[in-house]
Design goal:
The complex is a heterodimer. Chain A contains no helices and eleven strands. Chain A is an all-beta fold. Chain B is an all-beta fold. Chain B contains no helices and eleven strands. In chain B, the strands form two sheets. In chain B, strands 2, 4, 5, 9, 10 and 11 form a six-stranded mixed beta sheet that branches. Chain B has a five-stranded antiparallel beta sheet with strand order 1-3-8-7-6, with no helix packed on it. In chain B, a hairpin with a 2-residue loop joins strand 6 and strand 7. The N and C termini of chain B lie far apart (40 Å). The relative contact order of chain B is 0.33. The chains are: A mainly beta, B mainly beta. Chains A and B meet through strand 5, strand 9 and strand 10 of A and strand 4, strand 5 and strand 9 of B.
């Protein structure tokens, strides 16, 4: 049972470079989420997707873009990486829309921007 | 936006001791969740609470949904070294998007 799989697990970028963080879930979940985790800040929502083809901004969306072309995949893009985006990024998914099913998390992508 | 105050920020205890941590909110939540995060891994759900006043146990863990719907606590009894990690509370206030608000976490260290 893979659950939520994030790739890559680690990445180092130079300022200004672009990259895409990938998230895949095999639980047929409708909703998917991207968070960033910084020391002392807990988890903050970047973007979420309630269903395939839809996305919405979360608490800290600036500098990021997302794509949900397939139900099982949710991509997080950094067009021009900045040192302030150094963080641990977590993807999560949840079952039926509107239900009380909790979110399930991947193991994270540790991203460093130099 | 909604804020969760989680306390304490960190705890250092001896193996076998009981632990208590709590979260308070400035607004009402319909669901409270407690997650644990081990180093290098993502948060893992421990307990989910769906009704005000609900008291739920999962092994040595017990959590309660406060009757005001603005707070929740998590207790760990007879702590063991593998309880080490960061514990997060999270709340959901309603709506179909199911956005969660997370506390900043409680770092638990257990001394064998």
């Amino acid at each position: 049972n893979a659950g939520v799989t994030q790739t890559p697990k680690f990445q180092v970028l130079k300022t200004g470079q672009s990259m895409t963080l990938q998230c895949a879930q095999d639980m047929n979940h409708n909703s998917m989420y991207w968070y960033r985790q910084d020391p002392g800040m807990g988890l903050r929502l970047i973007y979420y997707s309630a269903s395939e083809g839809t996305t919405d901004k979360g608490e800290v969306p600036d500098g990021y873009n997302v794509s949900r072309l397939k139900k099982q995949n949710f991509l997080l893009g950094l067009e021009s990486a900045a040192p302030s985006q150094t963080s641990v990024y977590f993807c999560a998914s949840k079952g039926e829309l509107g239900s009380n099913q909790p979110q399930h998390f991947g193991d994270g992508t540790r991203l460093s921007i130099l | 936006g909604q804020q969760l105050n989680q306390s304490p920020q960190s705890m250092f205890i001896q193996e076998g001791e009981d632990v208590s941590m709590n979260c308070t909110s400035s607004s009402i939540f319909n669901t409270w969740l407690w997650y644990k995060q081990d180093p290098g891994e993502g948060p893992v759900l421990l307990i989910a609470l769906y009704k005000a006043g609900e008291l739920t146990s999962n092994g040595r863990l017990t959590a309660q949904f406060g009757i005001t719907r603005k707070d929740s606590f998590l207790n760990i009894s007879a702590s063991i070294p593998s309880d080490v990690g960061i514990y997060f509370c999270a709340g959901h206030s309603g709506g179909s998007n199911y956005k969660l608000t997370f506390g900043k976490g409680t770092l638990l260290t257990v001394n064998p």
